[in-house]
Structure formats: C-alpha cells, structure tokens
Amino acid sequence: MTDFFLRIYDFLAGRKWLAALLSVMLAAVCLLLASRLHYEEDISRFLPGDEESSKYSDAYNALGKKNNVILIFSAKDGSEVGEDEISEAIHDFQDVFDAEDSTGLVPQRQITVDSEMAFELMSTVMSSYPLFMTDADYQRIDSLLKVPDYILEQLASDRQSLLFPTGDAMVANVRTDPLHLFTPVLGRLRSTAANSNYSIVDDCIFTKEGKGLAFLTSPYGTSESGMNSKVADLVEGSIKALEAKHPDVTVSAVGAPLIAVSNAAQIKKDSILAISIALLLIGLLLAFSYKRLSDILWIVVSITFGWLFALGCIAMIRDSMSIIVIGVASVIIGIAVNYPLHFMDGLKSGVTPRQNLKEMVEPLLIGNITTIAAFLCLVWLDAVAMQDLGLFGSLMLAGTIIFVLFFLPVFTKARKKAGGTLELGKLLPDRAHSGGWLLVAVMAVTVVMYFLSGKTEFDSDIRNINFMTESQKRDLGTLQEGLDQSGLRQVYAIAEGKDLEEALERNDVLLAGLDSLKEDIVMVKGPGLFVPSKKTCSARITVWNEFWGNGRAHKLMKDLAEESERQGFSPSAFSPFGEILDKDYSASSLDSGSPILASFDGLYVIKDSDKCLIVNQVFCDDEAKSESVKSELRSDGTLVFDTGDVSNRLVSVLSESFDYIGLICSLVVFVFLCLSFRRLELGILSFFPLAVSWFWILGLMSLLDIRFNIVNIILATFIFGQGDDYTIFITEGLVYEYAYGKKRLATYKNSVFHSAVIMFIGIG
Q1: Taking residues 316-320, what's their average pLDDT?
Q2: Most exposed of 11, 36, 480, 737 (fewest Cβ within 10 Å)?
Q3: How many helices (H) and strands (E) does the chain have?
Q4: Cα(303)–Cα(390) distance, rounded to whole angstroms?
Q5: Is the pLDDT assigned to residue 648 strictly greater than 80?
Q6: Are 648 and 457 spatial neighbours (Cβ–Cβ below 8 Å)?
Q7: What are phi and psi of 618, to 5 degrees?
Q8: What is the C-alpha separation between 429 and 648, in angstroms, rounded?
Q9: How far apart are CA 734 and CA 726, in angstroms?
C-alpha cells in the first residue's frame, strides 16, 4: 500500500506542472458540479423517514396546517381598546393587505368569517337532510308526531319567534322546518366548529382574552424559505401600515412559514459566524504553530479541495442537500484538518517529503478509512439530512486525504528541523504511565461514569433545536391556550384512502367504532355524519324513503296545511318543507364541489395527490380511557395517535439510531484497528481510549442532565471519527519508536494536540 503512493509521488515529483494541472482541473470540475446543487433549509429533514414515522408526521403536519400564518390583534399596552376597535382594525387589515399584496402573492386568506359561505353551508344541509340523519333522529321524529297538538304548539311558537326583531333571520329556518323535526342535524353541524374559547364579533374571530385572529395561507412549503421570506416581508409591511392607522392596536404574526424563515435566517447567520470564527481561530493557532505561511496555506488548500470534492460528488447523485449540513462543516473541518496537519508536522522534524509520506501513509489512510466508515453509518439512517451529512462528511474526508497523499508531498519541500514554533505536545507528559495514580483515578472515574451512562435520556421535542423569536413563542402559547379543551386528552383518529370516496367509506366504519366506544368518549370533533360515503348516502336515503312512505309525508303536509291556515300563515309558507319531504334524493347529492366538503377541506378533510385523510378529534377525560380508545381503534387498522405518540415514536427512532451508530461505529472502528495493526492486542489497546471516552461522555450527560437529540447523534459520529484518528497516531508513534528506536512520538503527540484544539474550536 505504501509503495503505491510512493510510486505516484515519484512520478509526479518530476512533473509538478502535471500535479498542479490535475488538482486544479479536478477542483474546477467539482466547483462546477457543486454550483448546480439546491440547498434545503427544512430542519424536519433530520427527522426519521421510515414508513410508520412518515404516517405520523404526514398526518400531524397536515393537521397543524403547516402553511398557515396566524395574525393576532390585541390592545397595545396601556391602551383601553375593546373588541369593537379591534374588530374595526381587522376589517381594515383586509384593505391594507390587498393594497400591499399587489401581485397576489398570498391569494388564500381568512381575515373575517365568510357569512355568505356559512349561509350557503346551512342551506345545503337543509336541502339534504336525509343524508345526515341517524336512527335516533327518526325515533325522535316518530315520538314528536305522536304528541297531541304538537303541530299546533310548534306553529304557535314559530309565529311568536317571527314577531321578534330578529325574526327576519328565522324565516328560512321556519319555512324549511316549521315543526323543528331536523333541529338535531343543525345542532350537530354547529358543534363541528364550536369552541368555547372563541367567539364571533362582527364577523371577526376573538379569543376568550379578547384578542382578534385572522389567517393567511402561504402557497409555499416550509422548505421554500426564499419565497416565504417574501410572504414574511409582505405580512410585516401590512402590519406596519395597519398599526400606523390604528396606533392603539398591536398586531403580531406567527406560523410555520414565518418560523421557517426565522430558522433559515438564523441557520445562515450561525453557519457564517461559526465557520468564520473557526477559520479565524484556527488560522491564529496555525500562525503560532508554523513559521511558514506556505504551510498554513497548504493546510487550507487541502481542506478546501476536500470541501469542493464532497459537494461535487454529491451533486452527481443528488439534486439537493440540507444547508444545515454545510453549517455543521465547521466541525467536519476539525476532523479533515488532521490529515494535512499531521503531514506538515512530520516535515517539521527535518525529513524529506518522500520519507514523511512513507511514514505517514499507513496512519493517515487507516485513520481516514475508519472515520469515513463511521460517517457512512449515517447514510443508512432514515432521515434524509442525516444521509446528506454522512455523505458530505465521508466525501470531504476522502477528498482531503486524496489531496494530502497524492498532491501535497509534491508541492512541499524538505526543510531544516524547525525550532521556535508552538509545540503544544510538550504540555503533555512523555508517557501516560509516568504517574500510576493517574491511571487509578481514570479507572475509578470510568467505573462511575459507566453506571451513570445508562441513565442518559432522549429529548424528542424538535422545537428545542428549532429557532423561534420570543414573540413567536408567546404567540404560539396564546394559540395553544385557545385550543385547550379544559384538560381533556385529545386523540386523532384518521381514516385514510387512496381517494376521497375510499377515505369516506373507511371513515364510516371508524364512526361506527367510535359510537361503540361512546362510554369512554366525552366528545368527537370532525366531519362526523356530514361527509358520508356514497354507499352510506344510499342507505340513509333508503331509510328516509321507508320512514316517509306509505302516505306518511302526505298526511303530515295535509295536517300542517290545515293548522297553518288557522294560525294565519299563507298556503305557500311551508312549501320548502314540503319540497324536502317530496324530493327525490340520490347519493350524488353530496359531490366533491359541495360547500360542506369545502368547509371541512384542509381541516378535517385533507386531500393530497395520492391519498385523502378524514380526521376525527376524539376527547377523553382521562388517560386510561384514551389508551383504551386507541387500542380498540388500532385493532381495526385505523391510524390513531396523540401528540405523545408522535414524541414517543421519535424517542424510539432516536434511541434505535443512537444504538445503531454506537454499535456499528464501534464494530467498524475496532475491526479496522485490528486489521490495520494486524495484532488483536494492539487493536484492543487502540480501541480502549474510545470506549473510556464514550462512557465519560454519557456519564457526564446524565450527571448534567443533558439529553440526546438529533444534534448529539451527529456528534456521536464525530466522536468515533475523530477519536480513532488520535488513537491510531499515538499507537503508530509508539510502534515506530519500538521498531526503529527513533524518537517520533513527540511529533505525533504535537499534531494530535493541534488537531484536538482545532476540533474544539470547530465544535465551539
């Protein structure tokens, strides 16, 4: 293996122009390929993408209305503004936003409640009562019509209601249902949207604290932060214009698109800052450690080549990658710098580039292979961004080692033994066993840390690695309070189908299951009976026809006509009611263009290109009942979960990923160590510091209550990737001194110490 690299060196050493040409051409090609990459800024790409997790996250994200922007209108501190003034501001916001959004960037808005749509929805239900009735409704009607003088009493009540000032609003309802036979149907319709924490004032939605709400929908996904930033600017401009018009009203905005924009901006800012600080500090450290500027430049060139090589290779197999991975590059630099650093440190001892290459090939290559293998373990995880990180890290290290072993020896020269430079390795003792007490102390601490390591926990809340402004956190808290159901436990029961009809059929089965569990359920919110499948519609129409058949409808209309004439109503007053009884209904009465479906669309009916979800929110008053409901419904193949299940699933996957990385990385590194040193005892000796440091890390995390999350799992890979390089170099130094009797360990220790300091800078 060493001879191969020496032959390459001998060939290129006399043809430096060829080495320069090859390296520049390769870097240029990689740069061209890298320019075609599209960078994703969605932090959710770090979440697991397995089938079960995808089901949970897809449904949960859809339920959360990911693209909604919620505007919160409230009185400015110190002002005495009431709901009337806030309502006026909300109405004015409609005009302000129209003026600001001259290009129609955000066409979908709900600034105020659409009264016309609500009326149309009510009319649709009134004209299709048979499609929404239950057996209990028919039993009620049958009982009411048997009550003596029932028609007389109801018409008298109707007449009295119409005399009130609000009588005009009652006309349509009285004409279609003068006997109040279908009141439960309308009651169920109102309950689908009812929430005691919200109220409607002048067509505006208010929380119980008196804050007004308005809604916008961004047409762009949360990963499209570029376009969402335009939406954010539009919202901010509209808010400023409104607050100038209503100085006593303050408006804030929150929502996934705005949080994504804040996240993207913070990621870019932090990435630039982290990389800039890392490069500055590393540059200062190298300046003190090396006399020659050229040495520092070659280290930088080596890392830059590796960076371009990684991006170029990824561009050949993928169209996009997570920009967060680029932000993590400051840490990867701390690993990649090992290779040029070790090589340049070797030259400081006065050897020729060829002799230095001969000594460095094995430790550099072995360390590189084991580190790349550790990074490649991430490629087999389910999260796309973790795969990106594994690819980027392994390819950057591969590119760096290619430059260091093929080109760097050609471009560097032999020099006299260096003196007067910063030798960090001298801060360490010559031999670790120089003090027996130190070994005893290390072993004692290791035993303690071993027992503490098993208590490390996982943090499943992705929001803890999400950036949000204080205003966004406060506004999300306000919205969460509004959604609170007085301590009830909420469960999502979802019927899924390839299309709307299949989803509706499965939802019919789900509703039957919920009905059988009504003893454990406080209430169910969802489309309920108002979005039946065609099969259920046909069955309900049959029940309707059988109930009103045999002249029953004709007799009722005759009795109603006689009594209404006595009460002073016109002969045609209740003709709409008669039309409802005489109408020939069909299952197609509720089609895809129905106002009913439109009112539930995106909230309880979620349609995608390849599937449709029907959502039911089930509320139970204690955990035992909610678990019982989930267990019963899951036995029928229904997707059922609560927010705790989503978190628990994430914890489970994180734990599995962590165990996988720990086991596979350990196994890969240990096998490579044994193969490279060709002796089991040297492999065990080299692996021992990795195991000890691992227990120390887990123990300290448990002791300091630091929990594992996605970021920690990434760093776990770095620990193995960096640690094996250090242990390989120290072991190689010891073996070299033992075999040849030459003092080289100090040089190896110095480069390892340099690398460790640089790594800490990169992580910090």
Answers
A1: 85
A2: 480
A3: 30, 13
A4: 17
A5: no
A6: no
A7: -105, 130
A8: 48
A9: 12
38-40 and 320-322 beta bridge pairing? parallel
Q: How many CA atoms lie within 13 A of 306 on its CB side?
A: 35
Residue 417 DSSP label: P
pTM score of the predicted model: 0.64
Is 315 in contact with 37 (CB distance < 8 Å)?
Answer: yes
CA angle, 694 then 302 then 751, to 5°? 45
3-state secondary structure 217-274: ECCCCCCCHHHHHHHHHHHHHHHHHHHHHCCCEEEEEEEHHHHHHHHHHHHHHHHHHH
Reported confidence tier of residue 88, pLDDT bands at 50, 70, 90: very high
Question: Max alpha carbon distance in the chain (Å)?
Answer: 123
| Residue matched to tokens 């949207």 | 193
Q: Tell me which residue has tokens 């027996």.
A: 436
Cα torsion 60, 63, 68, 73: sign: negative
Distance between CA atoms of residues 572 and 104, nearest Å: 47
442: three-class secondary structure by DSSP: helix
Query: What confidence score (pLDDT) does residue 557 get?
Result: 93
Residue 258: closest CA among 229, 217, 237: 229
Q: What is the pLDDT of residues 474-487, one digit of tens each?
A: 766 666 665 555 56
Domain limits, the chain: 290-308+324-456+647-763
Find all residues with CB under 8 Å of 120, minimum gap 6, and list them: 595
d(CA 725, CA 751): 11
Whole-number Å distance between alpha carbons of 376 and 397: 11
Backbone CA torsion sign across 223, 227, 229, 232: negative
| Residue 621 · residue 521 · CB < 8 Å | no
pLDDT digits 0-9 by tens, 177-206: 999 999 999 888 877 765 556 778 888 888
Q: Is the pLDDT of residue 393 over 70?
A: yes
Instruction: Name which of 656, 725, 621, 684 is nearest 340 in CA terms.
Output: 725
Instruction: Convert 417-468 into a string of H (helix), E (strand) and C (coil).
Output: CCCCCCCHHHHCCCCHHHCHHHHHHHHHHHHHHHHHHCCCCECCCHHHHCCC
Q: Does residue 618 contact residue 515 with C-beta atoms inside 8 Å?
A: no
Residue 712 has pLDDT above 60, yes or no: yes
∠568-572-578 over CA atoms, to 5°? 115
Rounded to whole angstroms, the Cα distance separating 86 from 74 reads 7
Instruction: Check pLDDT > 80 for residue 615.
Output: yes
Number of Cα atoms under 13 Å in the Cβ half of residue 472: 17
Residue 489, strand partner residues: 620
One-letter identity of residue 674: C
Q: 249 phi and psi, to 5 degrees?
A: -115, 135
Taking the C-alpha atoms of residue 86 and residue 248, their distance in angstroms, rounded to an integer, is 9
pLDDT band at 700 (very low <50, low <70, confident <90, very high): confident
Residues 537-583 pLDDT 10s: 999 999 999 999 889 999 999 999 999 888 888 888 899 999 999 99
Asked if residue 636 lies in contact with residue 494, where contact means CB atoms within 8 angstroms, the answer is no
Per residue in 660-671, pLDDT tens? 666 777 787 788
Percent of the chain at pLDDT > 70 equals: 79
101: CB partners within 8 A, 6+ apart: 234, 238
Separation in Å, CA 208 to CA 74, 196, 302, 351? 12, 8, 62, 79
Is the pLDDT reported for residue 756 higher than 90? no
- Give the separation between CA 749 and CA 726, rounded to whole angstroms: 9
H or E element at residue 213: strand 212-217
Q: What are phi and psi of 322, to 5 degrees?
A: -75, 130
Q: Is it the case that residue 408 has pLDDT exceeding 90? A: yes
